[in-house]
Amino acid sequence: MTALVIDGHPHAESLTAALAQRYAAGHGDTRVLALRDLEFDPHMRFGYRKRMTLEPDLVDAKQALAEAQTIIVATPLWWGSVPALLKGFFDRALLPQQEYRYSKQGLPVGLLPARQGRLLLLADTPWYAAPFTGLPAQRQVVRNTMKFCGVRSVRTHRMLGVKNADDAQITRWLDRAESLGASDGRRDGADRSAASAQTIAADAASSSVVATS
User: Fold this and answer.
1) pTM of the predicted model as reported, rounded to 2 decimal places
2) 188 with 27: CB under 8 angstroms?
């Protein structure tokens, strides 16, 4: 797996879930992490005063985060933020000294290895109202979560006016998600091949070779 898609919608039959699946289909080397299927307590019961024991599904999710080259978050915009399920996942899974730490100067240092990311953001808000209402969830997820944890380059793709979108528009959004996945798949595959070539070259340079006829 080179890409991890985090589906933050509580409903499996949502457009958010469909977009996550179409991205994965286009990429070809992706794991879709549907948070609704995980068993974990989304509440930080003790804040940061006491560390909660991680459930097996969270341990598995954190391992996936640690291995992904590309991280995609697919989420609807609810009340200016993300669903409680996704926020709870961020609270429980992204921990100090594991996914991020602070420098001596008090600045955040991201520890996730992924350097590329995308946010697929859906909202009923029409495009012409966005400048007035703002999209605070975009800032929350991109700058205050993904980049905070080390994902340097994150691109946002907005699907606005979902409530009134016709079938043709929905098809365009789904096709776009698959196209983005295919583009990222080609890049991630090239990066993986280059990394493998460097590893092989380094191993060859350090190994003892005995010449034989």
Assistant:
1) 0.88
2) yes
Residue type, 190: A
| pLDDT tens figures, 153-208 | 999 999 999 999 999 999 999 999 999 999 999 999 877 655 544 443 444 344 44
Burial of 44 (0-12, 13-18, 19+ CB in 10 A): middle
Residue 32, beta-bridge partner list: 5
> What's the distance, CA 180 to chain centroid?
14
* Sign, Cα dihedral of 165, 3, 94, 139: negative
Share of the chain above pLDDT 90, in %: 82
The C-alpha atoms of residue 189 and residue 172 are separated, in whole angstroms, by 25
Alpha carbon separation from 37 to 6, 132, 156 (Å, rounded): 11, 35, 25
Give residue 130's pLDDT: 82
127 is written with which tokens? 């495009």
CA distance 62 to 111: 12
**Do residues 5 and 32 make contact, with C-beta atoms less than 8 angstroms apart?**
yes
